[in-house]
Amino acid sequence: MTSNITLEDFETKAKKWLDENAQKKPETSKKETEWGEGEFSVAVFHNLTFEEERDLLQEAAAWQISKAEHGYHAITWPAEYGGLDLPIEYARAFASLESGYITPSRHETFSVTTRLIAPTVLHYGTEDQKNELLSDLFSAKIFCCQLFSEPGTGSDLAGLGCKAVKDGDEWIINGQKVWSSGAQFSQWGELIARSHQDQPKHKGMTAFMVPMDLPGIEIRQIRQMSGGTSFNEVFFSDVRVPDRLRLGPEGEGWSVALTTLSFERDHSDSDGGGRAGGKWSQLLGTANSLDLLDDPQTRQRLMEVYIQTQIQRLVNRRAADLRKSGKPPGPEGSLGKLLWTEGMKLMSDVVSELLGPRLVADTQTWGTYEWGEHVLGAPGYRIAGGSDEIQRNIIGERVLGLPKEPDPYKGLPWDEVPKN
Predict the structure, then answer these.
(1) What domain range is 284 assigned to?
(2) What is the pTM of this model?
Protein backbone atom coordinates (compact mmCIF):
# COMPACT_ATOMS: atom_id res chain seq x y z
CA MET A 1 0.00 0.00 0.00
CA THR A 2 1.41 3.39 -0.93
CA SER A 3 0.95 6.86 0.50
CA ASN A 4 -0.78 8.05 -2.68
CA ILE A 5 -3.66 5.56 -2.49
CA THR A 6 -7.06 7.22 -2.77
CA LEU A 7 -9.40 7.14 0.18
CA GLU A 8 -11.93 5.13 -1.83
CA ASP A 9 -9.36 2.47 -2.77
CA PHE A 10 -8.12 2.36 0.82
CA GLU A 11 -11.64 1.74 2.13
CA THR A 12 -12.18 -1.01 -0.45
CA LYS A 13 -8.98 -2.82 0.57
CA ALA A 14 -9.62 -2.30 4.27
CA LYS A 15 -13.17 -3.65 4.02
CA LYS A 16 -11.92 -6.72 2.14
CA TRP A 17 -9.34 -7.36 4.86
CA LEU A 18 -11.91 -6.92 7.63
CA ASP A 19 -14.30 -9.30 5.87
CA GLU A 20 -11.54 -11.91 5.76
CA ASN A 21 -10.29 -11.46 9.32
CA ALA A 22 -13.26 -10.49 11.50
CA GLN A 23 -16.91 -11.35 11.92
CA LYS A 24 -19.36 -8.67 10.88
CA LYS A 25 -21.78 -7.56 13.56
CA PRO A 26 -25.24 -9.05 12.95
CA GLU A 27 -27.84 -6.77 11.45
CA THR A 28 -30.69 -6.10 13.82
CA SER A 29 -34.01 -4.37 13.73
CA LYS A 30 -34.18 -0.72 14.74
CA LYS A 31 -35.81 -1.69 18.02
CA GLU A 32 -33.08 -4.21 18.84
CA THR A 33 -30.36 -1.76 17.83
CA GLU A 34 -31.63 0.92 20.18
CA TRP A 35 -32.42 -1.30 23.11
CA GLY A 36 -33.02 -4.82 24.27
CA GLU A 37 -30.80 -7.80 24.90
CA GLY A 38 -27.23 -8.69 25.75
CA GLU A 39 -24.72 -6.99 28.00
CA PHE A 40 -25.31 -3.39 29.11
CA SER A 41 -22.05 -1.89 30.35
CA VAL A 42 -21.46 1.74 31.29
CA ALA A 43 -18.63 1.11 33.77
CA VAL A 44 -15.81 3.64 33.80
CA PHE A 45 -13.16 1.25 35.16
CA HIS A 46 -12.59 -2.46 34.62
CA ASN A 47 -13.49 -4.53 37.69
CA LEU A 48 -11.79 -7.73 36.57
CA THR A 49 -9.66 -10.42 38.14
CA PHE A 50 -6.01 -10.79 37.16
CA GLU A 51 -6.86 -13.68 34.85
CA GLU A 52 -9.75 -11.79 33.20
CA GLU A 53 -7.58 -8.73 32.56
CA ARG A 54 -4.74 -10.88 31.22
CA ASP A 55 -7.06 -12.66 28.79
CA LEU A 56 -8.60 -9.36 27.65
CA LEU A 57 -5.16 -7.92 26.95
CA GLN A 58 -4.06 -11.01 25.04
CA GLU A 59 -7.15 -10.83 22.82
CA ALA A 60 -6.62 -7.12 22.13
CA ALA A 61 -2.94 -7.70 21.37
CA ALA A 62 -3.69 -10.56 18.97
CA TRP A 63 -6.06 -8.33 16.99
CA GLN A 64 -3.56 -5.45 16.95
CA ILE A 65 -0.78 -7.76 15.74
CA SER A 66 -3.06 -9.01 12.97
CA LYS A 67 -3.76 -5.42 11.89
CA ALA A 68 -0.05 -4.60 12.07
CA GLU A 69 0.74 -7.07 9.28
CA HIS A 70 -1.01 -4.66 6.90
CA GLY A 71 -0.28 -1.36 8.67
CA TYR A 72 -3.85 -0.86 9.88
CA HIS A 73 -2.65 -0.51 13.49
CA ALA A 74 -0.76 2.75 12.81
CA ILE A 75 -2.28 4.29 9.71
CA THR A 76 -0.94 7.81 10.23
CA TRP A 77 2.50 6.84 11.56
CA PRO A 78 5.78 6.68 9.59
CA ALA A 79 6.31 3.71 7.29
CA GLU A 80 9.74 2.88 8.76
CA TYR A 81 8.01 1.92 12.02
CA GLY A 82 5.30 -0.18 10.43
CA GLY A 83 2.74 2.55 9.73
CA LEU A 84 1.18 3.65 6.45
CA ASP A 85 2.00 7.38 6.68
CA LEU A 86 -1.50 8.33 5.51
CA PRO A 87 -3.68 11.34 6.46
CA ILE A 88 -5.91 11.24 9.52
CA GLU A 89 -9.01 10.84 7.31
CA TYR A 90 -7.82 7.34 6.42
CA ALA A 91 -7.54 6.39 10.09
CA ARG A 92 -11.05 7.68 10.72
CA ALA A 93 -12.34 5.72 7.72
CA PHE A 94 -10.79 2.51 9.01
CA ALA A 95 -12.15 3.09 12.52
CA SER A 96 -15.62 3.60 11.06
CA LEU A 97 -15.37 0.37 9.07
CA GLU A 98 -13.91 -1.56 12.01
CA SER A 99 -16.81 -0.52 14.25
CA GLY A 100 -19.07 -2.70 12.12
CA TYR A 101 -17.18 -5.86 13.09
CA ILE A 102 -16.85 -7.91 16.27
CA THR A 103 -13.40 -7.11 17.67
CA PRO A 104 -11.78 -7.47 21.12
CA SER A 105 -12.50 -4.85 23.75
CA ARG A 106 -9.82 -2.25 24.40
CA HIS A 107 -7.93 -2.19 27.69
CA GLU A 108 -6.28 0.78 29.38
CA THR A 109 -2.82 -0.83 29.27
CA PHE A 110 -3.27 -1.38 25.54
CA SER A 111 -4.16 2.29 25.00
CA VAL A 112 -1.34 3.54 27.25
CA THR A 113 1.15 1.49 25.22
CA THR A 114 -0.03 2.30 21.71
CA ARG A 115 -1.48 5.80 22.11
CA LEU A 116 0.64 7.43 24.83
CA ILE A 117 4.06 5.87 25.24
CA ALA A 118 4.75 4.79 21.65
CA PRO A 119 4.20 8.37 20.34
CA THR A 120 6.41 9.69 23.17
CA VAL A 121 9.22 7.35 22.10
CA LEU A 122 8.68 8.53 18.53
CA HIS A 123 9.22 12.15 19.64
CA TYR A 124 12.08 11.69 22.14
CA GLY A 125 13.70 8.33 21.45
CA THR A 126 17.12 7.82 19.91
CA GLU A 127 17.29 5.94 16.63
CA ASP A 128 18.37 2.82 18.51
CA GLN A 129 15.42 3.16 20.91
CA LYS A 130 12.99 3.68 18.05
CA ASN A 131 14.33 0.67 16.17
CA GLU A 132 14.20 -1.50 19.28
CA LEU A 133 10.82 -0.47 20.66
CA LEU A 134 8.51 1.37 18.31
CA SER A 135 7.28 -1.42 16.06
CA ASP A 136 6.56 -3.69 19.03
CA LEU A 137 4.87 -0.89 21.00
CA PHE A 138 2.63 0.16 18.11
CA SER A 139 1.67 -3.44 17.38
CA ALA A 140 1.15 -4.31 21.10
CA LYS A 141 3.64 -7.17 20.93
CA ILE A 142 4.91 -5.64 24.16
CA PHE A 143 3.10 -3.56 26.78
CA CYS A 144 4.36 -0.51 28.64
CA CYS A 145 3.06 1.25 31.76
CA GLN A 146 3.48 4.77 33.13
CA LEU A 147 5.66 5.09 36.23
CA PHE A 148 4.79 8.66 37.19
CA SER A 149 2.62 9.07 40.31
CA GLU A 150 4.01 8.69 43.82
CA PRO A 151 2.34 8.34 47.25
CA GLY A 152 3.22 11.86 48.41
CA THR A 153 2.83 13.94 45.26
CA GLY A 154 -0.89 13.91 44.45
CA SER A 155 -1.62 16.07 41.42
CA ASP A 156 1.74 17.84 41.79
CA LEU A 157 3.67 15.37 39.64
CA ALA A 158 6.71 17.65 39.60
CA GLY A 159 7.08 17.03 43.34
CA LEU A 160 8.16 13.42 42.79
CA GLY A 161 10.99 12.03 44.91
CA CYS A 162 12.02 8.78 43.19
CA LYS A 163 15.79 9.20 42.76
CA ALA A 164 18.05 8.45 39.82
CA VAL A 165 21.79 8.69 40.58
CA LYS A 166 24.27 8.39 37.72
CA ASP A 167 27.00 5.79 38.13
CA GLY A 168 29.21 5.61 35.05
CA ASP A 169 27.08 4.55 32.10
CA GLU A 170 24.22 3.46 34.38
CA TRP A 171 21.63 5.07 36.64
CA ILE A 172 20.73 3.69 40.07
CA ILE A 173 17.01 4.08 40.76
CA ASN A 174 15.45 4.09 44.25
CA GLY A 175 11.90 4.99 45.19
CA GLN A 176 8.24 4.08 44.83
CA LYS A 177 5.52 4.63 42.24
CA VAL A 178 1.80 4.06 42.75
CA TRP A 179 -1.45 3.80 40.74
CA SER A 180 0.56 2.26 37.89
CA SER A 181 -2.17 0.73 35.73
CA GLY A 182 -1.15 -2.48 33.98
CA ALA A 183 2.32 -2.72 35.53
CA GLN A 184 1.68 -6.40 36.30
CA PHE A 185 1.28 -7.10 32.57
CA SER A 186 3.95 -4.76 31.18
CA GLN A 187 7.39 -5.64 29.85
CA TRP A 188 8.47 -1.99 29.93
CA GLY A 189 7.74 1.14 31.94
CA GLU A 190 8.19 4.84 31.22
CA LEU A 191 9.81 6.15 34.40
CA ILE A 192 10.22 9.76 35.53
CA ALA A 193 12.77 10.15 38.34
CA ARG A 194 14.59 13.01 40.06
CA SER A 195 18.16 13.08 38.83
CA HIS A 196 19.41 16.50 39.94
CA GLN A 197 18.66 17.56 43.52
CA ASP A 198 20.36 20.94 42.98
CA GLN A 199 17.93 21.99 40.22
CA PRO A 200 14.42 23.51 40.60
CA LYS A 201 11.78 20.82 40.82
CA HIS A 202 10.61 21.14 37.21
CA LYS A 203 14.16 20.96 35.81
CA GLY A 204 15.81 18.20 37.79
CA MET A 205 14.07 15.12 36.35
CA THR A 206 15.09 12.53 33.77
CA ALA A 207 12.96 10.01 31.88
CA PHE A 208 13.83 6.37 31.21
CA MET A 209 12.41 3.36 29.40
CA VAL A 210 12.81 0.63 32.01
CA PRO A 211 12.52 -3.15 31.49
CA MET A 212 10.11 -4.28 34.22
CA ASP A 213 12.06 -7.49 34.89
CA LEU A 214 15.24 -5.74 36.06
CA PRO A 215 16.59 -6.88 39.45
CA GLY A 216 15.29 -4.70 42.28
CA ILE A 217 11.84 -3.98 40.81
CA GLU A 218 8.89 -5.24 42.86
CA ILE A 219 5.27 -4.94 41.71
CA ARG A 220 2.41 -5.17 44.21
CA GLN A 221 -1.19 -5.17 43.04
CA ILE A 222 -3.65 -2.88 44.81
CA ARG A 223 -6.98 -4.55 45.49
CA GLN A 224 -9.89 -2.14 45.02
CA MET A 225 -13.13 -2.29 46.98
CA SER A 226 -14.79 -3.46 43.76
CA GLY A 227 -12.60 -6.58 43.82
CA GLY A 228 -10.54 -5.57 40.81
CA THR A 229 -6.74 -5.23 40.82
CA SER A 230 -6.04 -2.86 37.92
CA PHE A 231 -3.64 -0.61 39.85
CA ASN A 232 -0.21 -1.36 41.29
CA GLU A 233 2.55 -0.11 43.53
CA VAL A 234 6.03 -0.41 42.02
CA PHE A 235 9.14 -0.34 44.22
CA PHE A 236 12.69 0.35 42.99
CA SER A 237 15.58 -0.84 45.15
CA ASP A 238 19.02 -0.06 43.66
CA VAL A 239 17.72 -0.78 40.17
CA ARG A 240 20.44 -0.27 37.55
CA VAL A 241 19.23 1.21 34.26
CA PRO A 242 21.68 1.69 31.36
CA ASP A 243 22.05 5.28 30.18
CA ARG A 244 21.20 4.09 26.65
CA LEU A 245 17.61 3.67 27.93
CA ARG A 246 17.38 7.31 28.99
CA LEU A 247 14.46 8.92 27.11
CA GLY A 248 15.25 12.46 26.04
CA PRO A 249 18.02 14.72 27.36
CA GLU A 250 19.34 14.37 30.89
CA GLY A 251 17.40 16.67 33.22
CA GLU A 252 14.53 17.14 30.73
CA GLY A 253 12.21 14.49 32.12
CA TRP A 254 9.50 17.03 32.83
CA SER A 255 9.14 17.81 29.13
CA VAL A 256 8.93 14.09 28.34
CA ALA A 257 6.30 13.58 31.05
CA LEU A 258 4.24 16.53 29.77
CA THR A 259 4.30 15.07 26.27
CA THR A 260 2.99 11.72 27.49
CA LEU A 261 0.35 13.39 29.65
CA SER A 262 -0.69 15.57 26.72
CA PHE A 263 -1.18 12.46 24.59
CA GLU A 264 -3.24 11.00 27.46
CA ARG A 265 -5.45 14.10 27.69
CA ASP A 266 -5.58 14.31 23.91
CA HIS A 267 -6.91 10.75 23.69
CA SER A 268 -9.39 11.02 26.55
CA ASP A 269 -12.50 9.61 24.95
CA SER A 270 -11.33 10.61 21.49
CA ASP A 271 -14.66 9.72 19.94
CA GLY A 272 -16.59 12.21 22.04
CA GLY A 273 -18.56 10.27 24.58
CA GLY A 274 -17.87 6.61 24.18
CA ARG A 275 -14.48 5.28 25.31
CA ALA A 276 -15.40 4.74 28.94
CA GLY A 277 -18.35 5.45 31.13
CA GLY A 278 -21.23 5.03 28.73
CA LYS A 279 -22.32 6.39 25.38
CA TRP A 280 -24.86 9.02 24.44
CA SER A 281 -26.95 6.32 22.75
CA GLN A 282 -27.09 4.34 26.00
CA LEU A 283 -28.30 7.36 27.96
CA LEU A 284 -30.92 8.06 25.31
CA GLY A 285 -31.99 4.42 25.38
CA THR A 286 -32.45 4.49 29.13
CA ALA A 287 -34.61 7.62 28.92
CA ASN A 288 -36.66 6.09 26.12
CA SER A 289 -37.20 2.84 28.02
CA LEU A 290 -38.62 4.83 30.92
CA ASP A 291 -41.00 6.73 28.59
CA LEU A 292 -39.40 10.06 29.49
CA LEU A 293 -38.66 11.46 26.03
CA ASP A 294 -41.87 13.50 25.93
CA ASP A 295 -40.94 15.31 29.14
CA PRO A 296 -39.58 18.81 28.25
CA GLN A 297 -37.16 18.93 31.17
CA THR A 298 -35.74 15.51 30.29
CA ARG A 299 -35.31 16.51 26.66
CA GLN A 300 -33.47 19.65 27.72
CA ARG A 301 -31.08 17.70 29.94
CA LEU A 302 -30.44 15.07 27.27
CA MET A 303 -29.57 17.76 24.75
CA GLU A 304 -27.09 19.28 27.20
CA VAL A 305 -25.26 15.95 27.25
CA TYR A 306 -25.44 15.61 23.46
CA ILE A 307 -24.04 19.11 22.90
CA GLN A 308 -21.20 18.36 25.32
CA THR A 309 -20.25 15.18 23.45
CA GLN A 310 -20.26 16.98 20.10
CA ILE A 311 -18.05 19.81 21.38
CA GLN A 312 -15.68 17.22 22.77
CA ARG A 313 -15.62 15.28 19.50
CA LEU A 314 -14.72 18.41 17.51
CA VAL A 315 -12.01 19.48 19.97
CA ASN A 316 -10.42 16.03 19.81
CA ARG A 317 -10.54 16.00 16.02
CA ARG A 318 -8.75 19.33 15.93
CA ALA A 319 -6.10 17.95 18.27
CA ALA A 320 -5.71 14.87 16.05
CA ASP A 321 -5.13 17.10 13.02
CA LEU A 322 -2.43 18.98 14.93
CA ARG A 323 -0.72 15.68 15.77
CA LYS A 324 -0.70 14.67 12.12
CA SER A 325 1.04 17.95 11.24
CA GLY A 326 4.03 16.68 13.21
CA LYS A 327 3.60 18.88 16.26
CA PRO A 328 3.74 17.25 19.71
CA PRO A 329 0.52 17.64 21.70
CA GLY A 330 0.28 20.93 23.53
CA PRO A 331 -1.90 22.47 26.24
CA GLU A 332 -5.01 22.07 24.08
CA GLY A 333 -5.01 18.45 25.25
CA SER A 334 -6.04 19.73 28.68
CA LEU A 335 -9.18 21.19 27.13
CA GLY A 336 -10.14 17.79 25.71
CA LYS A 337 -9.48 16.06 29.02
CA LEU A 338 -11.51 18.63 30.97
CA LEU A 339 -14.40 18.39 28.51
CA TRP A 340 -14.36 14.61 28.88
CA THR A 341 -14.49 14.56 32.68
CA GLU A 342 -17.11 17.30 32.80
CA GLY A 343 -19.10 15.36 30.21
CA MET A 344 -18.99 12.23 32.36
CA LYS A 345 -20.12 14.22 35.40
CA LEU A 346 -22.98 15.75 33.41
CA MET A 347 -24.02 12.30 32.21
CA SER A 348 -23.91 11.02 35.81
CA ASP A 349 -26.06 13.90 37.01
CA VAL A 350 -28.64 13.45 34.24
CA VAL A 351 -28.94 9.68 34.58
CA SER A 352 -29.29 10.05 38.36
CA GLU A 353 -32.18 12.45 37.80
CA LEU A 354 -33.80 10.04 35.33
CA LEU A 355 -33.46 6.91 37.43
CA GLY A 356 -34.05 8.16 40.95
CA PRO A 357 -34.27 5.13 43.31
CA ARG A 358 -33.61 2.73 40.41
CA LEU A 359 -29.99 3.81 40.55
CA VAL A 360 -29.47 2.15 43.95
CA ALA A 361 -32.19 -0.52 43.91
CA ASP A 362 -32.00 -3.27 41.29
CA THR A 363 -35.51 -3.52 39.84
CA GLN A 364 -34.35 -6.01 37.17
CA THR A 365 -35.14 -3.41 34.51
CA TRP A 366 -32.53 -3.72 31.75
CA GLY A 367 -30.26 -0.69 31.36
CA THR A 368 -31.02 1.03 34.66
CA TYR A 369 -29.22 -0.31 37.76
CA GLU A 370 -26.01 -0.75 35.74
CA TRP A 371 -25.59 3.04 35.66
CA GLY A 372 -24.48 2.87 39.29
CA GLU A 373 -21.03 1.76 38.12
CA HIS A 374 -20.80 4.89 35.99
CA VAL A 375 -21.91 7.25 38.76
CA LEU A 376 -19.42 5.73 41.23
CA GLY A 377 -16.53 5.50 38.76
CA ALA A 378 -16.75 8.81 36.89
CA PRO A 379 -15.19 10.96 39.67
CA GLY A 380 -12.01 8.88 39.42
CA TYR A 381 -11.15 10.32 36.02
CA ARG A 382 -11.41 13.83 37.43
CA ILE A 383 -8.15 12.95 39.21
CA ALA A 384 -6.49 10.49 36.81
CA GLY A 385 -4.14 12.04 34.25
CA GLY A 386 -4.09 15.34 36.14
CA SER A 387 -7.01 16.67 38.15
CA ASP A 388 -9.60 19.07 36.74
CA GLU A 389 -7.98 21.85 38.77
CA ILE A 390 -4.62 21.14 37.15
CA GLN A 391 -6.22 21.20 33.68
CA ARG A 392 -7.83 24.58 34.42
CA ASN A 393 -4.46 25.96 35.53
CA ILE A 394 -2.83 24.74 32.31
CA ILE A 395 -5.61 26.21 30.15
CA GLY A 396 -5.52 29.50 32.04
CA GLU A 397 -1.75 29.92 31.97
CA ARG A 398 -0.72 28.30 28.66
CA VAL A 399 -3.78 28.89 26.48
CA LEU A 400 -5.37 32.08 27.82
CA GLY A 401 -2.12 33.67 29.00
CA LEU A 402 -3.37 34.40 32.52
CA PRO A 403 -0.86 35.04 35.34
CA LYS A 404 0.58 31.93 36.95
CA GLU A 405 -0.31 30.96 40.50
CA PRO A 406 2.20 32.39 43.01
CA ASP A 407 4.87 29.90 44.12
CA PRO A 408 7.13 31.00 47.01
CA TYR A 409 9.61 28.21 46.18
CA LYS A 410 9.90 28.90 42.46
CA GLY A 411 13.50 28.69 41.30
CA LEU A 412 14.81 27.11 44.50
CA PRO A 413 16.89 23.93 44.19
CA TRP A 414 14.81 20.86 44.96
CA ASP A 415 16.88 19.96 48.02
CA GLU A 416 16.00 23.35 49.58
CA VAL A 417 12.22 23.05 49.07
CA PRO A 418 10.38 22.04 52.29
CA LYS A 419 8.94 18.50 52.12
CA ASN A 420 5.97 17.05 54.00
Answers:
(1) 268-399
(2) 0.85
